[in-house]
Amino acid sequence: MDDISIINQLLEKYVNDKNIFIKDKEGFIIKLKKLIRDGKKNVQIVSDFDMTITRYWKDGQRTPSSHGVIGGNPLLSEEARNRSKELFNIYYPYEISNEISYKEKYKYMVEWWTKEHDNIIEQKLTQESLDEMIRTRPISFRDGFIEFFKICKSNGIPILIPSAGVQNIIERILKQNNLIYEKLYIKSNQMIFSPETGICVAFSEPIIHSLNKYQFNFKGSPYEKYIIDRKNILLFGDNLGDIAMSKSIDHEQVLSFGFLNIDIEKNIEKFKNVYDVVIANDSSFNFANDIINLLSE
Questions:
Q1: CA distances (Å), origin 97, targets 91, 176, 203, 271
Q2: Pfam families from the xrefs (predicted)?
Q3: pLDDT values of the chain reduced to their tens digit, one per residue, 297 residues
Q4: d(Cα 26, Cα 73) in Å, to the nearest integer?
Q5: Which of 136, 170, 187 is the last residue of a domain?
Q6: What is the CATH number of the domain that holds 79?
């Protein structure tokens, strides 16, 4: 079967899926043909974590982000939880707003992350307490992600997670779910613990927030050798700024997937103008899984 027949078969499978939007179908097909031709050995993954790898909703409730696992945890003092909620209510509308300027939004994001990190540091948390917090306030993976991870691992496809969340939490969540992989690399905000007291005393700098996830350098890192010859990227994000996550990586092509979880009607056109594929209503990784399985060995 030729590439066009394979692609048409894929599109036919999802023709009635009301949660998948492809604005430029011709451009999508051109990119997919290159992906199929170049194969699994030439592809790498770049994916956000919170509300991308994880679900946005579960049982009618919003699931916690990696920051929210800590900030909204019942193991924290009520004062700390209220402070975290207050910060969320102030700054989250700015994060998801498409009405304010990039410069203004950037300023608000730095303020939010700085204040939230200060709030966490004040709680004098230990590394051991993080595991209990995750069990107390668990996240939920997006449908199809476990299969996505297994497909990547079994085919040796590297996965980069540039996240504005908390790296220590993300690493523990993946480990608790046995999602361990040599070619998985996480670049996020790290809690720094005192060797004397075992208490969190700082966060890594510079702060990684929702608008600067692309600011990293792989030169000399163990991850560099895994991606050096992989010029095709599958990118996954849940806000318009995530499209820039591949900016610092040498590549020829990006096929991008945007998960639009809320305010669908308001934001669908903006997402369609940025992402090759828009997946709405907290839907699954299944379409991406089928695409990876199409790639030649």
A1: 10, 34, 27, 13
A2: UMPH-1 (PF05822)
A3: 788 899 999 999 999 999 999 999 999 999 999 999 999 999 999 999 999 999 999 988 899 999 999 999 999 999 999 999 999 999 999 988 878 998 999 999 999 999 999 999 999 999 999 999 999 999 999 999 999 999 999 999 999 999 999 999 999 999 999 999 999 999 999 999 999 999 999 999 999 998 998 877 777 788 989 999 999 999 999 999 899 999 889 899 999 999 999 999 999 999 999 999 999 999 999 999 999 999 988
A4: 46
A5: 136
A6: 1.10.150.340
Which of 2, 3, 48, 263 is the catalytic position?
Answer: 48
Are both 87 and 172 inside the same structural domain? no
Is residue 50 part of the annotated active site? The answer reads: yes
Q: How far is CA 235 from CA 2, 47, 129, 161, 238, in A?
A: 25, 6, 33, 10, 10
| Amino acid in position 112 | W
**Alpha carbons 169 and 133: distance in angstroms, whole number:** 9
Structure tokens at 51: 């509300």
Q: What 8-state DSSP symbol labels residue 279?
A: E
CB 163 within 8 A of CB 208: yes
**The last residue of a domain, from among 114, 136, 158:** 136
Exposed, middle or buried by CB within 10 Å (0-12, 13-18, 19+), for 26?
Answer: exposed
Select which of 2, 38, 50, 263 is catalytic: 50
Using DSSP's 3-state secondary structure scheme, residue 254 falls into strand
Collapsing DSSP to helix, strand or coil, 217 comes out as: coil
Domain residues for 172?
Answer: 3-56+140-294
Amino acid letter for position 169: I
Query: What span, in angstroms and rounded, lies between the C-alpha atoms of 190 and 39?
Result: 34
Catalytic annotation present for 3? no
Beta-ladder partners of 236: 47, 257
